[in-house]
Each structure stands twice: as C-alpha cells, then as structure tokens.
Amino acid sequence: MPTPSSTPETDTTLPGDHIDRAGESPSGPRLGVVGWLRWGWRQLTSMRTALILLLLLALAAIPGSLIPQRSSDPNGVIQFDRNNPGWAWAVQLLQLHDVFGSVWFSAVYLLLFASLVGCLIPRIRHHAQALLAQPPATPRNLQRLPAHDRRRVDGPPEDVLRAAEKELRRQHYRLRRLDAGGECSIAAERGYLRETGNLLFHLALLAVLVVLAVGTGYRFTGQRILVEGQTFASTRIAYDSFTPGRFVTDAQIPQFTLTLDRFRVDYVEDNLNALGMPRDFDAQVTVTADGTQQSSSIRVNEPLSVAGTDIYLLGNGYAPTLTVRNPAGDVVFSDSIPFLPQDANLTSLGVVKVPDGLAKQVGMIALFYPTRAIAPGGASYSSYPDLLDPVVTLDVYVGNLGLDSGVPVSVYSLDTSAMTQVAGRGTATPALELTPGTTAPLPDGLGTIELTNIPRFASLDIAHDPTQAPTLIAASAAVAGLALSLFVPRRRIWVRVAARGDQTQLEVAALARGDDPRLQSTVDALAARLETAPRPPGGSDDPVP
After folding, report:
1. CATH number belonging to domain 144-189+489-532
2. DSSP 8-class letter at 338
3. To which H or E segment does residue 220 belong?
4. How far apart are CA 23 and CA 136, in angstroms?
C-alpha cells in the first residue's frame, strides 16, 4: 500500500505504465562539438539549403539595382546621400552603396559556394560508381513493377533473348545477362545522361560563381568624351571616369590610341511624322594598337573591339569651340566644350570657365541651339537637331570660380554663389549671342569671345571584361546540362524468357526514376517487336547473323 506521504508520481509500487506514474523523459545520445559540426555540415550541403541560399543571393542583389553603387555611379551615391540625410547613415552602415562587396552579400555568396561544393562531391562520387556498376539483377516478381507485359511467343528462349539483346543494344542500353533457375533474363539500363546533365548544370553554376568572384577583380570600365579630331590614349589618367577591379593595375590596362575622325548622324528628312529623328549614328575612328593603325567605326549596339577591350557608343552632342581674348587681343582660353543635350532637338547646356588671363575670373552659362527658333513668347528653342541655324547664348558671371578650394568641381556646372552676373536675364546687359565666326565683347571691357567652330562629340564607354568567354561557356554548359536532365529518361528494363512447351514465355518490365508517362508504351513496343522479330533458321544452335 502506498504510504500517506507518497504520491502517484513518486510511488515506486505502481507499475511503470500506470496512468498516474510519471514517465521518464526520453533521452538520446548527446552531440559533442564534432557531432554538431557534422550536423551543421550536413544541413549546409543539402540541396534544400543550396536552393534557399540561391534565392537569398537573388534577393540580396535587389538593393544593388535600386540604390546607387559606388563602383558604378559615385556621383549618384553623393546625390542620394544628399537627398536622404535622415537615413543615409543606415545605408552606409548596411553597406548598401557597395552591395556586391558587402560582408553580408559575401557571406551568402561563400555559403552558397560551400553548399554547392559539399553537395556535388558525394553526388559525383556516387554517379561515377553507378556508371561503373552493372545493371541490377532481375527482380523475382516483374509483375509488381509499374510497367509490365507478359506474352507467349514462338521460338526458343535463347533466340528470343538474343533478339532482345540486339534490340536493346540498338537503343543504347547497357546490358547484363543473367541465368538462374532455368530462366534467362537480361537487365538493361540507360539514361545516366540525365544525372550527368544534372551534375553538369550544377557544376556550371558553380563555375559561374567562381568566374564572377575572381574575374570581376580583373574587369574595368572607363568613360571618355571625344570631340572630333581629338585623340585618346588608353591610360588611367586619360579617362574621364575609371572604375577598376580590385586586382587591376596600370600595367594591365591595354595600350592603344583612338582618334575620333568624324561623327556622322543621319536624320529622317522624308517623313514629316518622324522629321529630325536620328536614323543612324556612326563614329568614324582611327585606332592604333600594337604598332598597327586601322580605320573603323562604332555604332549603337556595334562596339569596336581593340586590344581586349570593347568600345561602346553611349551618346553624342555638340562641342562648340569658344575662344576668349583679353583686351590686348591675346588668346587666354580656347577649347571645344561638350554641351549636354537637353531635348531631342539637341538644345544643349554648357559651362565656360576662364580662371586666368583676364582682369577677373569669368564664368559663363551657355545654351546652344543647332537650329534656332523663337517661340511666340520670345523664348528660344531648337526646332531641328542638325546645324541649320546654330546660335550660342551666354549668361556671364564674374567673381570666384571656386577652383582653388581643393574640392572637386564638375565641369558641367557653375557655382554662382560667389559670383556676380554681369550679362543675361535679370541684368542691364542682354545675354551674349554668337553664330559661327562671330565675336562678342565681354562686359566691363574684360575682352572678347568668339565662336570659331561647332564640332560634334561622342561619349564612349571602354570596357574590359575577362569573364565574358568563361561565363558564356559555363552558361552554355548549364543550358545543355539542364536540357539533358529534363529530356533524357532514366529507365531500367528487364526481359525474362522461359520455355513453356513449344513456345517461350516472354516477360518485359520497366522501372523509371521519376515520372515517365511513356514507360508502359515503351515496354509494350519492345514486347511487340520481340514477338515479331525474325528468328535464326534452325533454332537456337544456329549462329545469330
């Protein structure tokens, strides 16, 4: 009897499976450090984890296309932080301006790499063993397989089996002959290309990761604006902007020179609905590389390949040549200044800065009209993008250009905070107007300015990307592997024959890995061909032709 102080949970006189007896909690073997490491490695190298990491990598790349990146748009980064001061610190903290080089993106990238490697190595080993192994033995009960056919055929069992062997070899099956218990059978197998394609796809994906991880360090892009007649030498300091990979050195930049001889634009003139629309852009250039000079052209979507780099045509416009002289008539400034197009008819905006040679520093904000027209309100605009009636108007400022502050200043903008406007809208002096070959005096007797020429400019992008060929090869291999894994069926077929009187009992059965809707029809077709297959004359002792 239980004592008064005992409870059902602590009473040892109750049987172990009594409802009131407290059961012992199940306990398993404890995992040590090595056990936990093995468990973590198994989780990391599972295909499920690899798919999750691949999805995370795709999601992690989204901020790189939404937020300006330092590697591709440094000016956009500055503007983004200036426009969003409230949370710019969070963007900096999370490395969202350098997504593809951030710690968290690299962590996902490396984990995906490790997961793929750990997943593929045992699969490759298992696949190699399967390729070397013989087809499995014939099951005892073929009727239990998903595709089965049994029928009586004429002819000795040996002849039927030889016909089956010949037919299966013709269909590229691997064969294994088995004789047991008075019954003969053939085990056939094909479709290992399916797993080979699957492995090829994943190996190609792994190759893409390696190529992008290593190859991007040797990639660089640079931009340069060239005015007609100017020559560009491919050195780091000659680019207007240059974005190198982390492993790029000056010695790895291909050496060549490129001269923009002429930039030709063909406009639509025979269709009023599309009048002035560009039909073709053609940058005619002369390239010198490895001591060889040749003439070529660069068009939209038709880059020029030089010394391992691809040169793309990005944009174009006009670069009026302006000459400034002091009161004594000496030239203090003369340059072709690229004006940035503002509309489809190439109304363009430019900035002229004359820091030296005059009594004061002079800055000018200029508008260029290739074909000037006057709106009813008196405003000027360009009515056609070609040079039919070109005019340059200039608002003139004097004062401090801010070039000595030590802060980089854009050549396409003018800071007028420390300057005084002396000509243009809002002043007593109207804006200066120039046509080709004309000269206008600067206010306050500072000198003169002349429009001497109006050449065109071309904006070029020069890119060197050693990952293109390896990535193309890996991507092609991935597509080929994916096609094999999707369209090559994996099948095992068994053919068993046994003598039944003066006939032969034929059994054909098949098993597929995965869903194979044509499996039963394949078995039926094979059995039908064996039923009608020609037999060698004289029975099974005669040689098979």
Report:
1. 3.30.310.80
2. P
3. strand 220-227
4. 48
Number of H helices, E strands in the chain: 10, 26
**Is the alpha carbon torsion for 362, 363, 365, 366 positive or negative?**
positive
Cα atoms in the 13 Å half-sphere on the side-chain side of 395: 14
Cα(221)–Cα(463) distance, integer angstroms:
4
pLDDT in tens, 380-398: 999 999 999 999 999 999 9
Contacts of 427 by beta carbon, 8 Å cutoff, 6+ apart: 421
For 193-202, write each residue's pLDDT tens digit: 999 999 999 9
Q: Is the Cβ–Cβ distance between 171 and 163 less than 8 Å? A: no
Residue located via tokens 């068993």: 496
Domain extent listing, the chain: 33-129, 144-189+489-532, 217-318+460-475, 321-456
* Residue 233 backbone phi and psi in degrees, to 5: -105, 130
**CA-based angle 483:125:139, to the nearest 5?**
80
Distance CA 452, CA 449 (A): 9
**Single-letter residue type at 272:** L
Q: How far is CA 271 from CA 264, 274, 371, in A?
A: 20, 5, 19
Quote the DSSP letter at residue 108. Answer: H
Of 418-427, 456-465, 469-478, 526-535, the range with the lowest mean pLDDT is 526-535
